[in-house]
Each structure stands twice: as structure tokens, then as C-alpha cells.
Design goal:
The complex is a heterodimer of chains A (242) and B (624).
Chain A (H helix, E strand, L loop, with lengths): L8 H5 L2 H11 L3 H8 L14 E8 L9 E10 L2 E3 L4 E4 L8 H7 L3 H6 L3 H12 L3 E4 L5 H13 L8 E2 H8 L7 H5 L9 H7 L10 H19 L12
Parallel strand pairs in A: 1-5, 5-6
Antiparallel strand pairs in A: 1-2, 2-3, 2-4
Helix pairs in contact in A: 2-3, 10-11
Chain B lengths: L5 H7 L10 H10 L1 E5 L4 E3 L7 E7 L1 E5 L5 E6 L3 E2 L1 H6 L7 E3 L3 E7 H10 L1 H19 L1 H4 L2 H4 L12 E3 L4 H11 L3 E6 L6 E7 H9 L20 E2 L4 H11 L3 E6 L2 E7 H7 L4 H8 L5 H20 L4 H27 L6 E6 L1 H4 L10 E5 L5 H21 L17 E3 H13 L3 H7 L5 E6 L1 H15 L3 H11 L24 E2 L1 H18 L7 H9 L6 H27 L7 E2 L6 H32 L1
Parallel strand pairs in B: 9-10, 12-13, 16-17
Antiparallel strand pairs in B: 1-8, 2-7, 3-6, 3-8, 4-5, 4-7, 10-11, 13-14, 15-16, 15-18, 19-20
Helix pairs in contact in B: 2-4, 10-14, 12-13, 12-14, 13-14, 13-23, 14-16, 17-19, 20-21, 20-24, 21-22, 21-23, 21-24, 22-23, 23-24
Classes of the chains: A alpha/beta (242), B alpha+beta (624).
Protein name (chain B): Cyclic nucleotide-binding/CBS domain-containing protein
Pfam families (chain B): CBS, cNMP_binding, DUF294, DUF294_C
InterPro entries (chain B): CBS_dom, CBS_dom_sf, cNMP-bd_dom, cNMP-bd_dom_sf, Diverse_CBS-Domain, DUF294_put_nucleoTrafse_sb-bd, GlnD_Uridyltrans_N, RmlC-like_jellyroll
């Protein structure tokens, strides 16, 4: 038997709470076993009763196989409040070279990176904030796949969890984002579902800086606004996670 | 505090009392914050709940109330609330409600007390601020209503976007899109000689260009609106609001002589006052069904109460309520036309009575009529107009505008006639007046076109203005009717109360106050050849003649304003107490101040009636 038994399709088919139970039994790394043991709320739980954590990564690029994580920001929250006292931010050393263009974007320099720990050194701290919470991200093709790949490289096993994607919610609310020629003539402009543009539609303030932490806070605020405008505190989490 | 929370910290330190707070304390404060997003209307602090946190408004606004429900203060971005209970260590005394969608920072009691101990500046601020707010609440009347004290130029935030009238449709649409504006001003001439000639809006592009499939190279002047409604740069915001309500336009060019200073859009005012009646009006135009309109009609009363609480004057409230009524009617006609198809001949839908006078309140019935084009053939066309009239009348009834008991509605065939018949009606009323007939038709002398060929209604106004002042007999009979209802004032300035019935021991502020006043003002206005419909506007027209001396006009205006506002407040109080508003007031429910001034106001009405009797009745008796 190999070190890592790949997660079977049978397990992947299970509803999230049962899947977490099954994965808790098969996970080898203690941080992952603890993560799954902390459990997942049932799909019918009202969103107002779900512990959430907004999560944002800055990466060296968009390709999960060619790029890696540079920084992690997270903030635990619920529909009723975002606890800044528990907000966390880490810069980590990417295993792949830092591209010049992403350096200017994140404002993270080679010197910062040089002194930064490897992700494996801070995993326990990161999971302390993730355990028992449903992650919330804006654009779900970054945090989940990058964390999965990073963990595979370090622990020899990946991770599975549901996410709420505030961008997917905006995409759902604006199915006709790209106006036709005639609509453009009539002054209709395309609807952007990027984080700052989505926030503007709810009257949420503009944040001048860009880092993983403020973006995770921005995402948490956006989800609160989305729920209050388009859903309700009683909306089951199963309607929202992906 | 995490260094990455700098954005949150930076907002705090822009506002007192955090501006001068030591860095370390601000960092501790930031780390203790809990952020919450609330929608407009959310009760953030309930009276009597334990005081556990102070709130800081990151974006949005909130209203703070007294225990009585009276508005105490309004706070916006960078301001705090909830500190009073924490300070006193008592349950919440001033409940708070989000006025807009807001992002709030909660500061826990523990942090509040820590800051209070550590930072004297903060301690002073939360203590002193509270006293100065109490004081400012007392002088609220002067400054509370920003709509009435701010100039319209304050709303101009961008450079004017304009183009020559020769520009093609596609180019116009591109300019509007590139500049992110919903209206484009169209100019003729160059430099200092450039003159505003017209305007096109998003809506014009949709309804005129796209629906009619005009070629994109059509010059824009072919679809522009030339009959422009503009506003002077020195006007107040509420005047812009009234103009939009009255003329049903969403963009007002702001003029300084011939120079365009900018454009004010409906959305600018709505932003300024998120709960304003304009917001309600724009909502009305978004409804696709009668049931949607009915749902909104419940907000009309909230809008009314809000204006009263904000110390709006009776002219503003009356105009706003009439504007809302017009908008309901307007939208119902659009929906009716969608359902029944386009009208077979042109027509004008006309408001009568209080709506036409811009003096509507919350309890009101519908008074309306239709002027049809002279090409109208009853056998061919009347089925359509009856169906349309019925659709609108039923829709208005759904929205709370009850059917007119006197059957003065467009559903009545008598009041659904071609223009030439209307001309005959008015000519007959004025030239061959009969007391009885005039009693029932005086309501037609407050008229205003609100939809379709409003020029038909204007033609009738002209006819009335020209003929009425020359018919002494007509004026005499109108004057006699205006004397039928007297103010409730006895000898020695006592109130005369109803003796029996449901309203025993009350007096009726409409029947014995505002109605006789507007009746007598109408007579003078007709005698002056005025085209104005609103009583305050009529008083201005009368002032241009020598019919009444200036002092008496001022008295009439003050009396009308005072009786109206007491009536309005009485209705607002009933609404807030969950009762059906009416016009019947018990003297003991009035403050000594109101009682005394109301008696003065009724005395003005009484004197004005005596003058009217002398002028028309006695004189006419000699002539006849």
C-alpha cells in the first residue's frame, strides 16, 4: 500500500458532513485529521448559524502547477460580525521563483520572501483558524486548488472542503453581464463581478491597499451584503456552497 | 493589530475623536472591532437592550430616536452612536435604525471603557458631544431639512457633458457611454454664444430611437426634447425635487442666465435623501403590475410621516404627495396602454382638485377626467377609453385613492369628452352660471393635465383665465360658494365644536380651515386672470394685481401654512400611533401655542370671507 491512498470516488460522492467523517479516518497528517474531525455543518444549516472564514491567497500566478502561494489572509466571521481581533496574515516563501510582475502587484518584495517561513511551518496556525468553519472566497479557482497542491507537495495528501464563492453569487445575479451591441448603444455597460466592482454595487467602501488580509475582509463584507440583499439569514448553507 | 488592517485604521484616524488618539490605542481599538453590514431600515439598537457596544459608521447613515419615537439625531460616515448607554452603564435609551445600507464597526464595551480611561480626549468627546447634540436637536428646526437649506448647485459633481444638436445618434450614445452619463445636453452656437437647445436621455434613446428603429446616423435633434424644464442655479434642492415631481422629468439642467452650470439627475437627489418621495416615485415607474404599485402605496404614508418629522413645509409636503399621486396615475396609464394597445385618438388625462393644486395629503379620493381629441367618435373609440379609465380608476383605488363619491372620474361618460365639449362646459359654467351647478363643478377650476396631450388641459386653463375675470356673475356665485363653510370660531375667540355624531367635540381642519381658504383664494385668482393652480402660487399671482393689499396676502399665506401644517401634523401623529388619519382635531390635543395661533389663523379666514362677501356679494347685488 502506498503512503497516500487517493480519496475514492465513493467518498467524493458523500454529502460534506459524511465526507469529512470518512476523510478524518483516512487522513494521515495530524493537521488534516484534526481539520476533518472538527466537522462540517449539515447542508440544511441556516447561513446565520454557520461559522465562516474568509480566505484570500496572493499567488505568483494563476496556474496551480506553475505558481505558488505568497501570502495568506483570513478572518473568521459569521453573518452577524467579522472579528478583526482574529484576523491573520502570513507571508510565506514560494517554492517557485517570484515573477517580477507579481512582485509589483502584491507589494511583497524579495526581501520579505527571503525571511518568510515555508507554508509547512505555519500550517498548524492556519488550520487553527480554518477548523470547524466554511471557507468563503472570491473566485473559487485559487484558494482551494492552491492549498490542495501545496499540501500534496508537503504532506503527500491533498484537502477537500466546500467553499462559498462570492464571485459565483455575483455571476448568478448578473447572467447577462456582457451587453449586446444594441444594449451598448442604449448605454448599457458590462457588469463587472470583480471584488471592488461587486462591492460598489452594495455601497461597500473602497479599500486603497491590496493584501490578502484586507481582501479577505472585503470578501466577508461582500457576503454579508449579498445575503442581506438577495438571500436571508435562514438560507441553508447547502444552497450557497460549491 | 495586523499591519494589513491599515485601511481600517486609516479611516478611523480621519475622524474625531480618533484623530488625535495615540497610535497604540488606535491599534488596540482596530483589533477589537467587529464589522457588520446592515440593510437600510434595520433596527441596530433596540430600546432597553443591554448596552454592550458602541458603533462607528464606516459607510452609510443611521437615525437615533428618543424614547417617544421622535427623531433625535442623524449620524453618518465617521460618526459614532450607542456611546450614551455605555457611558451611563444603563440599557439603551436612544434606539438606532440604519437609514441606508451601512457598514458598521462594533466597539465592545470593554474597549470603550479602556479608551475612556486611557484617553482624555476621547472621554471629553463622548461626554461633551452628547450635550452639544442635545442642544443641536433643539435647534433642529432651522437646519434639519438639508433639502430646504442646500442649493441645487451642491449636487453638481461633474463637468457638463454636451454635444452639438447636429451630432448623430450613435455618436451621442457613445459620448454618453464614455462619460458615464444618463443625459446629454445639446447645444447650438460656439463659445460664449452657445445656447442650450435640448436634451436626450437614456430613456429617449430607448423609447424614441431603438423602438422606432431609427438609423444610427439620424441627427440627434430629431429626437431631442426641446421643451426643456430647467432650474436656476440659486434654487434649493427641494425646488429641484418639486420640479421633477411635477414635470415628471429625471434630469434638470441648472442654468445661470444662458450658461449651463450642470445637470442634476433624479439619482443625485435620491442619493442625497435616500428615503425621499422621489425615491418612491422612481420606484413607481419600475413597477410592471398593479399589485406592485399597490405594494409601494404602503410606503406613501411613511414618506409623508418622514417629511413631517423633517419639518418640511406644507407646500413641499402637498406637492410631494401630489407628485406621488400623479406618478401612480401616470404609471397606471402606461400599464393600461400596454394592456389595451395604443389609444385610437390622442387624449389628455387630467387631475382635478387637490392633486391639481399640488395640495394633496395622505387621505384623499381620486378626482380625474379625460379630454379626448376632437376626432373622437364615441361609437368607435369610447369602448377603449372607458376600459382605460376603468383600469386607472380601479388601480388608483387599489393604491389607496378611493373612488370619488361625487363620481368626478374619467369613468363617468360626462367627464370623458372631446376638447370641444370641455370648452363648451367651461364656457357654459362661466357665462351662464347657476349656483347649484357651480357648487358641483368648482373642483374643475383646479385642473392640471398629467398625461398625454397636456396641451389640451393648458388650453382649458387659458380659456378659464381669459373668460372668468370678465364674468362678474360667475365670480359672484363662486364667492357665494366660498362662503358656505366658515371657520370654527365663536364669539370671544372660542372654538366652535361639532355637537353630535362621530366627531363630537372636535373641529374639522379641512372643512372649516384649509378648504374655505383655498376656495376664497381660487375666487381671487380667477378674478386676477391667473393660470396658477396651487394656492400659494395663486396668492403670488393675486399680488401682481391690486385686488388685495399686501398685508392681507401675507396673512392669508401664513394662515394657510399654519392650518395646513397643524392638519398635516395631526395626520402624521395618527399614522405613527397606528390610527387611521382624519381631519378632526380635539382642542385639548393641541399645544397652547398651536391653539393660540390656530385661532389667529381662523380669524384671518373669517376676515377674508367678510372681505369676499363685501367685494362680490354686496356689490353684485347692486349690479344685478
Amino acid at each position: 500500500m502506498s503512503e497516500t491512498s487517493p480519496v475514492t470516488d465513493a467518498i467524493k460522492q458523500l454529502p460534506w458532513p459524511e465526507q469529512y467523517q470518512a476523510l478524518a479516518d483516512t487522513a494521515k497528517a495530524p493537521v488534516l485529521a484534526a481539520f476533518y474531525q472538527a466537522g462540517c455543518v449539515p447542508a440544511e444549516t441556516p447561513i446565520s448559524r454557520v461559522p465562516l472564514v474568509a480566505l484570500d491567497f496572493e499567488t505568483t500566478g494563476l496556474d496551480v502547477d506553475a505558481h505558488s502561494i505568497v501570502s495568506i489572509g483570513l478572518v473568521p466571521f459569521t453573518l452577524d460580525g467579522i472579528q478583526l481581533g482574529q484576523a491573520k496574515h502570513w507571508v510565506v516563501r514560494p517554492r517557485l521563483p517570484l515573477h517580477q510582475e507579481s512582485v509589483t502587484f502584491h507589494g511583497i518584495t524579495h526581501a520579505d520572501i527571503h525571511e518568510a517561513p515555508d507554508l509547512s511551518d505555519i500550517l498548524e496556525d492556519v488550520f487553527a483558524s480554518l477548523n470547524g468553519r466554511i471557507p468563503v472566497v472570491h473566485f473559487r479557482y485559487i484558494e482551494r486548488p492552491f492549498l490542495n497542491t501545496a499540501l500534496k507537495a508537503r504532506l503527500d495528501e491533498g484537502i477537500r472542503f466546500p467553499v462559498i464563492d462570492t464571485m459565483a453569487i455575483e455571476a448568478h445575479l448578473h447572467p447577462d453581464r456582457k451587453p449586446s451591441f444594441l444594449q451598448r448603444l442604449m448605454g448599457k455597460r458590462p457588469v463587472s463581478i470583480r471584488l471592488p466592482d461587486s462591492r460598489r454595487r452594495y455601497g461597500l467602501p473602497h479599500y486603497a491597499s491590496h493584501n490578502a488580509l484586507i481582501d479577505s475582509i472585503a470578501t466577508a463584507e461582500l457576503l454579508q451584503a449579498q445575503i442581506h440583499h438577495h438571500f436571508s439569514p435562514d438560507t441553508p448553507i447547502g444552497d450557497l456552497w460549491l | 493589530m495586523q499591519a494589513e488592517l491599515i485601511d481600517i485604521r486609516n479611516h478611523l484616524v480621519q475622524h474625531p475623536p480618533f484623530k488625535d488618539m495615540p497610535e497604540e490605542l488606535v491599534n488596540q481599538l482596530t483589533a477589537s472591532i467587529e464589522i457588520v453590514y446592515v440593510r437600510a431600515g434595520t433596527q441596530v439598537l433596540e430600546i432597553g437592550q443591554p448596552s454592550t457596544e458602541m458603533y462607528y459608521i464606516r459607510s452609510g447613515a443611521a437615525e437615533i430616536y428618543r424614547r417617544s419615537g421622535e427623531l433625535y439625531n442623524r449620524v453618518g460616515e465617521g460618526e459614532i452612536f450607542g456611546q450614551f448607554g455605555l457611558l451611563m452603564q444603563r440599557p439603551v435609551r436612544f434606539p438606532a435604525k440604519a437609514l441606508e445600507d451601512s457598514l458598521l464597526y462594533r466597539v465592545p464595551a470593554e474597549t470603550f471603557h479602556y479608551l475612556f480611561e486611557q484617553d482624555e480626549n476621547f472621554a471629553d468627546f463622548v461626554e461633551i458631544e452628547d450635550r452639544s447634540r442635545l442642544r443641536s436637536a433643539l435647534s433642529r428646526r432651522e437646519k434639519s431639512n438639508a433639502l430646504m437649506t442646500s442649493r441645487v448647485t451642491r449636487l453638481i459633481s461633474r463637468k457638463t457633458v454636451s454635444a452639438p444638436t447636429t451630432v448623430r445618434l450613435q455618436e451621442a450614445a457613445r459620448i454618453m457611454t464614455d462619460n458615464g452619463v444618463s443625459a446629454l445636453l445639446l447645444m447650438e452656437g460656439e463659445g460664449d454664444n452657445a445656447r442650450l437647445k435640448g436634451i436626450i436621455t437614456d430613456r429617449d434613446l430607448r423609447t424614441r430611437a431603438v423602438i422606432d428603429a431609427l438609423p444610427s446616423e439620424t441627427p440627434v435633434r430629431e429626437i431631442m426634447t426641446e421643451d426643456l424644464t430647467t432650474i436656476r442655479a440659486s434654487s434649493y434642492i427641494f425646488e429641484a425635487m418639486l420640479s421633477m415631481l411635477h414635470n415628471n422629468v429625471h434630469h434638470l439642467p441648472v442654468m445661470d442666465g444662458h450658461e449651463v452650470r450642470g445637470v442634476v439627475a433624479l439619482s443625485d437627489i435620491v442619493k442625497y435623501e435616500s428615503q425621499s418621495s422621489l425615491y418612491l416615485v422612481s420606484n413607481i415607474y419600475h413597477q410592471q403590475h398593479v399589485h406592485g404599485l399597490k405594494k409601494i402605496s404602503y410606503d406613501v404614508r411613511d414618506s409623508f410621516v418622514r417629511m413631517v418629522n423633517e419639518d418640511a413645509n406644507s407646500h413641499m409636503i402637498g406637492s410631494a404627495m401630489a407628485g406621488i399621486g400623479r406618478s401612480f396615475t401616470h404609471r397606471l396609464l402606461e400599464l393600461g396602454e400596454e394592456k389595451l394597445g395604443p389609444p385610437p385618438v390622442p387624449y389628455c388625462f387630467m387631475a382635478l382638485g387637490s392633486m391639481a393644486r399640488d395640495e394633496q395629503l395622505v387621505v384623499t379620493d381620486q378626482d380625474n377626467a379625460m379630454i379626448l381629441d376632437d376626432s373622437f367618435v364615441p361609437e368607435e373609440h369610447d369602448e377603449y377609453f372607458l376600459a382605460l379609465a376603468k383600469f386607472v380608476s380601479d388601480g388608483l383605488a387599489e393604491c389607496g385613492y378611493t373612488y370619488c363619491t361625487g363620481d368626478i372620474m374619467a369613468t363617468n361618460p360626462k367627464w370623458r369628452q372631446p376638447l370641444r365639449v370641455w370648452r363648451d362646459y367651461f364656457t357654459d359654467w362661466i357665462e351662464n352660471p347657476k349656483a347649484e351647478a357651480l357648487l358641483n363643478s368648482s373642483i374643475f377650476f383646479d385642473l392640471d393635465g398629467i398625461y398625454g396631450r397636456t396641451d389640451f388641459a393648458e388650453e382649458l386653463k387659458t380659456l378659464v383665465a381669459e373668460k372668468a375675470s370678465h364674468s362678474q356673475h360667475f365670480l359672484t356665485l363662486m364667492a357665494r360658494n366660498a362662503l358656505n363653510r366658515t371657520p370654527p370660531l365663536g364669539f370671544f375667540r372660542t372654538f366652535v365644536l361639532e355637537e353630535d355624531g362621530k366627531h363630537k367635540k372636535t373641529f374639522n381642519l379641512k372643512r372649516r380651515g384649509t378648504a374655505p381658504l383655498s376656495d376664497l383664494i381660487r375666487v381671487h385668482a380667477l378674478a386676477s386672470g391667473s393660470r396658477a393652480q396651487n394656492s400659494f402660487e395663486r396668492l403670488k399671482s393675486i399680488a401682481k394685481t391690486s385686488l388685495i393689499v399686501e398685508d392681507d396676502l401675507d396673512n392669508l399665506r401664513d394662515a394657510l401654512e399654519f392650518i395646513s401644517i397643524v392638519r398635516i401634523r395631526h395626520q402624521a401623529l395618527s399614522l405613527q400611533a397606528g390610527q387611521e388619519p382624519d381631519n378632526n382635531v380635539r382642542p385639548q390635543d393641541l399645544s397652547p401655542f398651536e391653539r393660540s395661533h390656530l385661532k389667529d389663523a381662523f380669524q384671518v379666514v373669517s376676515n377674508a370671507q367678510k372681505f369676499l362677501r363685501f367685494r362680490y356679494y354686496n356689490q353684485a347685488a347692486r349690479y344685478v
